[in-house]
Every structure is written in C-alpha cells, then in structure tokens.
Write a sequence for this structure.
C-alpha cells in the first residue's frame, strides 16, 4: 500500500549567530508534527532551511570584512548543528543561496514578468542615505530612520512591482471558503479585516540599493525582494521548474506551513497571491503559532535575556527543552519562559511522573520476576479502567494532533502517565508480592504497566524522541510494536520480554542549585556576546515623586563654548534658557570639543546651587552618562523641536 504524502515546512531562518530557545519553537513544533505523521504511517516531507539574502546580511558581512557568502556559511553551519542537537528530523535543508533555488526564483520572476503580473514602475518612499534603505511612512520612528535615527528624505527609484491588488478578491474568497486555511481563526480575522478588506497595494519586488540577492535576469541592476525569494523556497525545494518535478507532484500543495505569528501576513497574503499567479494550488493550511516570551517580553540579545537552547540542553536534556517548548506554548497563544518554571516542569512531569513510572515498573519486574514479563492474571476494574484510559488517550492524541494542538496532545500523554501511576497505587504490587499465591496477579499488574508504558513511549516519541528510545531499549520493545497501529488495542500483545534496568532517564533536580547554574549559563552567554556581568554602583535610597520634583531639569541650548585655560577637563558653556543666558562649567572637555556641542540642546539641572570652578561661577550642571572610570562619556541631546526652557520630567 502506498503511503499518503504529508508535506510540512518551517519558516526558513535568518542566519543569526545565536538562535535562542524561542526561535527554535517553530522548528521543534514542526518536528513533533512531522514525527507524529510518520508514526501514523504517512510519507512525510519535512523541510527547513535558511533565508540568506538581503541588505542586513550584506552589511554585517562588510563589517566583518568577509563576503556575504562566507558570512552566512559559518552561521548556517551553526544552525544546522543546532537542529541536530535538538533532534530535528527534517528531510531536507534548503538554503536560499543554493544554485537550484536561485535558478528557480529567477524563472519565477521572469515568468511573472512575461505574463504581466510583474511590471516596472517607481518606488517612492522615505530614503535614509547612510543606511541606503527605503522606509514607508509608518516604519519611521519619530519621522526618522528606524535603524540609525538620522533624517530621511523623499526619494524615488525604479523598481518592479507584483500585481498583488489583482488577487485580492480571489484571495478573500479562498480564505472565506476554506475556514482551515489560516489557523488559529483569530489570525484569519486579523488578516481579512486589517489587511485584505482595506485593500491590497501592488508590492515592490525588486531592489537596486544593494546587491546581496538574486539578480533579476533581464535587468541585472535589480535583485529580487527577499520575501519573494524566501517564500518560493517551499516549492523550489521540491524541484519547481527544474528538470525533475517528481517531488513537487507528490508533495505539493503543502499540508501545513508552520510560521510564527509575526510572519503570518507574508504567508497568507503574498504567498497565496504569488501561487495564484503561478497557477499553482494553495497550501492547505498556514498555522501561525504564538511566541515563547522571556520575562514577559521578547527575547533579545541586547536585553541579555536570551536563553540558549544548546546550553540548556547540555545542563538538562534535549527532551527537557523540547518538552518545555511543546507544553508551554499553547495552541495559537504565547507562552512564558522562566527558569523556575522550566525546572519545575522538568522535575514534576518528567522526573517525578514519567521517570518514576518507568523506573518503578522496571524495578518491580526485575525484583519479582528476574526481569521477565509476560501476560498474567488480568481481572478487575482497575485493569479495565487503565485499558480504556490508554485507548482513549490514543484517540485524543490523534484528534489533537490533527488540529495541531500539540500542547494538548502532550498533556494527554502525561495524563496517561498519571493514570498509570495511580494504577500502581490501586493495585499495590508490593502487597501482592508478599504472598506466592498472588504471583499470577502480580504478573498481570506488571504486564499492564508494561503495556501502558508501551503506549506512552509510542505516543511520546514524536515529542521526546530520546526518552522513547531509552524506554524502548530498557524494555526491549521491538519497533513493530511501537506504531500507532499497534497501540489501538490495549492488552493485545503477549510480551515475552527479558528486561534490564538502565540509567535513570530524568534525575531529580536540586532546584536551588540548578537555578544558580542557570544564572551562570546566562553570565556565560553574556560573556560570549561580549557583555560582562559587572558590579554596578548600588542604587541610592528611594525617593518620592515630591523629592524628585525638587530637581528642576530644563532643556537649554548651547550658544557658546570654550576651553577653560589650564584645566584640561573643563569646558565653559554659555547656554540659553528661555531667553536668558547662563554660564556653566562642565567636566566634559576630554570627550567633546567646543564645536561638537555649540548649537545643540542638552539637559541642565537648573536649580543647582551655583559653585565656583577654576574661578568661574557655574549656574547649573549638564547631564551626561559615563562609565564608572569616566573613560566614555555621552551627553544626551534633544533632537526634536522642543524649545529651550522646557521641562524634563
Ligand atoms: N526568514 C524569515 C522567514 C521566511 S519564511 C519564507 C524569518 N526568520 S526568523 O529567523 O526571524 O524567524 C524564524 C521563526 O522563528 C519565525 O517563525 C518566528 O516567528 C520564530 N520566532 C522567533 N522568535 C520567537 C519566539 N520568541 N517564540 C516563538 N517563535 C519565535 O522570519
């Protein structure tokens, strides 16, 4: 019998030198689904990869003094290693710098141009010259470049456009007629109401301001817009427009694209429109998952709250990390990472519940039957209850996985673990063991526990593959009794196993000690990123808002500035404060030349008692940030149109 194909993709990742536990989520969840489908007998194609073009990459490579390709090669190797560590079972890894992908994207662009879906026009927008980047009005921050904060100017450049507007009605119809196309539903409504219904504008799909991209074959000053390049990966990986389209025929349309909520718009508006233009069927589903947040916010290197999945796996286990991700982020919503919670889950669910069930069962089989287990006497309602619970769990997990409710599926398996632990308490094997006459019954109880563990190990294998392997090897379960088909009926197999007790799967964790270790991990990571943890000057005693309001901070404009003779640290400034002028002496001469601050607006402590410095009376103090040793100093400046004399609160 030929297996049914199932095609699942993750987003292709930007080459970032440090992926944190949050952004491994898209891949771990896709891996769990892919593994489950394999277990259910599907012929699975699971694709992941990297999205390597664009101006940012080009710039980073320039900063490092290497070519963009050299730059991405190193990082991509790191990402591939990470997926190995995390036990990701992808069938293919695509890089947008792969030749076949480049050739296919060029053909896509040309085809769309030839058929009139791409046309040449002008791109108008706000341009930041130093950054060589166009921004839309909404991307600007306070009217300035969102990257460097400098002024932007109106500019116009030649560019190619994709007729996105042409597909608006068809797209809306498709979404409305296929309720499962965008999931969860909340995201579907967001796309319809916030983006499609207000009207789609044609999309600028080429750039000329940098060249690290796929060249447009018929106009080589242009490179293809990164999202057109990136989204196409889902079909180029299957051989689209190559000599061999067998994989494409077999696996397209994709069963599901797994994407984070931040990029769902690209996948449900641009991607389907592009496919319509290519006359290709649309993916069956785009699933926009929630995010894993740290300390209530996004993880970022600059915040120092990045949690490194590799370090975490080394200190705990890969399965502990996978378990946390799969359990903590519920269908469609965000989850929270805290070290305390991570340790708690690992301890209670994995070490206590699952670990104990397995080790207690093994221990009893070794102790009472020398490691041999086969069917014994199965007779009472406890047996029946365990059997029906286990069989129901198989159905529940299947339903949840069909609806991509991975966290609910994991939870279901853990409920079966709890049920099996309860069965131990109900049947009290240690009591049965006291009387030889109960030997058959004791055997029956241990058989049932073994059977429950076989169900659990099979069901948990897509989520915790290492754990399943460990359980199976200790119980000597053969592969043929570890498929979804083989766990339809509980108690059907007459085991004749001879088991051994192996290592403890999830040792209990000393919470305090581990938390300390995690703190250390964080420090190590910050150090690796060049951020040393250092002692800061202790925060001063608390003050009230009234205390604070006694300090009168004002915006002042520097009119004149000169060096103070024979004092190499001091500058004498004349500042304007709401029409009046004042003299200020400031110890900033090592960091600012007079011409650097003349004309600038700075912040003054305006009601500070005057003090004489080198014979000059200073009427206030200018605010500056500096390192403890004063080797670096910066004066915060007011760039917006706030007049001198205005308050700073
Ligand atoms: N290159 C694009 C995708 C192109 S697909 C044609 C991209 N890459 S990414 O590296 O920035 O993100 C990869 C995935 O990680 C996205 O699905 C994103 O939503 C996900 N995540 C990044 N941080 C995350 C969390 N903190 N939590 C969960 N997922 C998050 O976008």
């Amino acid at each position: 019998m030929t297996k049914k194909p199932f095609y699942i993709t993750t987003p292709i990742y930007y080459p970032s030198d440090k992926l944190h536990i949050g952004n491994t989520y898209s891949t771990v969840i896709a891996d769990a689904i892919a593994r489950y489908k394999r277990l259910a007998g599907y012929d699975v194609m699971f694709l992941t990869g990297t999205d390597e073009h664009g101006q940012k990459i080009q710039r980073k490579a320039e900063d490092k003094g290497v070519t963009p390709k050299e730059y991405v090669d190193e990082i991509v190797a790191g990402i591939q290693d990470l997926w190995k560590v995390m036990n990701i079972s992808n069938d293919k890894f695509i890089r947008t710098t792969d030749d076949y992908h480049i050739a296919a994207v060029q053909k896509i662009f040309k085809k769309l141009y030839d058929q009139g879906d791409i046309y040449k026009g002008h791109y108008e927008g706000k341009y930041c010259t130093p950054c060589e980047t166009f921004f839309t009005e909404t991307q600007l921050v306070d009217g300035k470049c969102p990257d460097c904060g400098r002024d932007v100017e109106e500019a116009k450049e030649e560019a190619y456009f994709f007729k996105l507007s042409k597909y608006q009605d068809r797209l809306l119809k498709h979404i409305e007629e296929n309720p499962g196309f965008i999931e969860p539903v909340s995201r579907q409504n967001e796309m319809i109401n916030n983006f499609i219904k207000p009207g789609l504008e044609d999309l600028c799909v080429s750039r000329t301001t940098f060249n690290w991209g796929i060249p447009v074959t018929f106009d080589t000053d242009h490179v293809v817009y990164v999202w057109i390049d990136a989204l196409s990966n889902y079909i180029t990986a299957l051989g689209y427009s190559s000599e061999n389209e067998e994989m494409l025929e077999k696996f397209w349309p994709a069963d599901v694209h797994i994407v984070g909520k931040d990029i769902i718009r690209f996948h449900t508006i641009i991607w389907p429109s592009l496919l319509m233009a290519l006359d290709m069927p649309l993916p069956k589903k785009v699933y926009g998952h929630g995010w894993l947040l740290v300390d209530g916010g996004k993880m970022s290197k600059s915040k120092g709250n990045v949690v490194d999945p590799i370090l975490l796996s080394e200190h705990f286990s890969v399965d502990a990390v996978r378990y946390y991700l799969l359990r903590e982020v519920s269908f469609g919503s965000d989850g929270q990472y805290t070290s305390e919670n991570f340790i708690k889950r690992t301890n209670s669910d994995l070490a206590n519940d699952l670990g104990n069930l397995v080790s207690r069962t093994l221990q009893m089989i070794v102790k009472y039957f020398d490691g041999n287990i086969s069917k014994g006497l199965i007779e009472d309602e406890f047996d029946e209850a365990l059997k029906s619970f286990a069989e129901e769990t198989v159905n529940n997990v299947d339903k949840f996985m069909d609806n991509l409710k991975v966290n609910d599926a994991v939870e279901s398996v853990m409920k079966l673990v709890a049920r099996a632990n309860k069965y131990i308490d109900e049947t009290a094997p240690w009591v049965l063991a006291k009387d030889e006459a109960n030997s058959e019954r004791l055997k029956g109880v241990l058989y049932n526990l073994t059977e429950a563990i076989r169900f659990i190990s099979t069901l948990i294998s897509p989520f915790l593959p290492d754990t399943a392997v460990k359980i199976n090897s200790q119980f000597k379960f053969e592969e043929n009794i570890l498929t979804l088909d083989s766990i339809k009926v509980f108690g059907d197999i007459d085991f004749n196993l001879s088991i051994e007790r192996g290592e403890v799967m999830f040792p209990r964790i000393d919470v305090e000690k581990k938390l300390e270790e995690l703190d250390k991990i964080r420090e190590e990571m910050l150090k690796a990123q060049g951020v040393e943890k250092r002692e800061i000057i202790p925060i001063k005693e608390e003050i009230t808002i009234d205390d604070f309001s006694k300090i009168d901070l004002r915006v002042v404009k520097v009119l004149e500035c000169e060096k103070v003779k024979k004092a190499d640290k001091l500058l004498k400034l004349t500042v304007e404060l709401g029409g009046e002028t004042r003299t200020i002496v400031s110890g900033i001469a090592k960091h600012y030349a007079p011409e650097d601050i003349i004309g600038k607006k700075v912040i003054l402590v305006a009601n500070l008692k005057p003090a004489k410095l080198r014979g000059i009376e200073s009427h206030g103090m200018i605010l500056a940030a500096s390192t403890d040793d004063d080797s670096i100093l910066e004066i915060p400046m007011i760039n917006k149109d706030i007049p001198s004399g205005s308050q700073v609160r």
The first helix runs from residue 25 to 39. The radius of gyration is 32 Å. DSSP finds 21 helices and 25 strands in the chain.
